Amino acid sequence: MLADLSPLIAATTQWLTRAYPAGGGALDGALCEAQARQAVTVAAWLRYPTPMDAALVGMAGPGGSARLDWITGHDETPTPDEYAWRTWVDEVVASWAACLLSDATLARAAVDALDGSPHTAGTPAAFRRLLSPDDLDRRAAALLRHPDLLAPVATLHHTGLLDALQPGRALPA
């Protein structure tokens, strides 16, 4: 059983960086992707808090990007290779990541909520680009962090994220 969220994190990160691309060259692209990956990682760890949750989404699949594509106006028919990775996009995780990218206070609360999580056991997780973006990060991810542009995706599951961050609440997948 897959108890690892890396396929879901990679696909959802790729979806976000294609929907909200960096404006500059290779460095901007890398900085934008790093910020998206950190937000998606935090969102995925909150959404699937235990190894069992991760294994279950690995077996059942996260649902794909169809609704997100529709909301953001992506109407091209995907190639078979593109279709394959798009099936690993998790709509809730993408929505939560959009919330975190557009609201620094919410991002800090989400990272703080991971304290003691099985995902953060062992090596400390650092989310500097998500929590403290510098000027280069902000410029590279101008679209990815723009609250108005992210709003259609962020509002999809914003309430669920707020519920997941309530102290003492179980984090159901």
Would you tell me the structural class of the helices and strands?
Answer: mainly alpha
The biggest sheet amounts to: none
| Rg over alpha carbons | 15 Å
Q: Residue share in helices?
A: 55-70%
Mean pLDDT: 91
Question: Which descriptor suits the 3D outline?
Answer: globular
Strand content: under 5%
How do the helices and strands follow one another from N- to C-terminus? HHHHHHHHHHH
**How many alpha or pi helices?**
11
- Terminal CA distance: 17 Å
Number of strands: 0
Low-confidence stretches: none
Describe what this molecule looks like in 3D:
The protein contains 11 helices and no strands. It starts with 5 loop residues before the first helix and ends in a 9-residue tail after the last helix. With 173 residues, the chain is mostly helical. The longest helix is centred in the N-terminal third of the chain and has 22 residues.
List keywords for this structure.
11 helices, mainly alpha, 173 residues
Give a short overview.
With 173 residues, the protein is mostly helical. Helices cover 62% and strands 0% of the residues. Helix 1 crosses helix 2, helix 1 packs across helix 6 and helix 2 crosses helix 7.
Fold topology:
Blueprint: H1 6-19, H2 26-47, H3 51-60, H4 66-72, H5 80-86, H6 91-102, H7 104-113, H8 128-131, H9 135-140, H10 147-154, H11 158-164
Helix pairs in contact: 1-2, 1-6, 2-6, 2-7, 6-7, 6-10
